[in-house]
Amino acid sequence: MDMSITPKRVAHEFFQFVREQGVITLAIGFLIGGAVSKLVTAFITDIVNPLVGLALGAAGNLKEATIMVGSATIAWGDFISVTIDFLVIALVVYFGIKLLGIDKK
Q1: Domain count, the chain
Q2: Which of 2, 18, 50, 76 is exposed most, by the fewest CB atoms within 10 A?
Q3: Is residue 1 part of a domain?
């Protein structure tokens, strides 16, 4: 058995690894996941947050809603905004996994 390390052998083993381990599928998943995350974040920032801000009396800009407690500034609006963002992304991922049937593998 030849154990020599040559560029040709390394390239062959690398491409075999990529094919067998589904690295390309994983990379595509990361790209699509990043795009979905940007889409959901834009939806939350541009549509949901202004509506929630209006409902909570934050003058339509939820991320900048704060309350002063002594000398400390509590950014409660930003916390709610990030929480909504997380929940919507988690739901999109959950339903995406269910629709694709990945949860059964």
Answers
A1: 1
A2: 2
A3: no
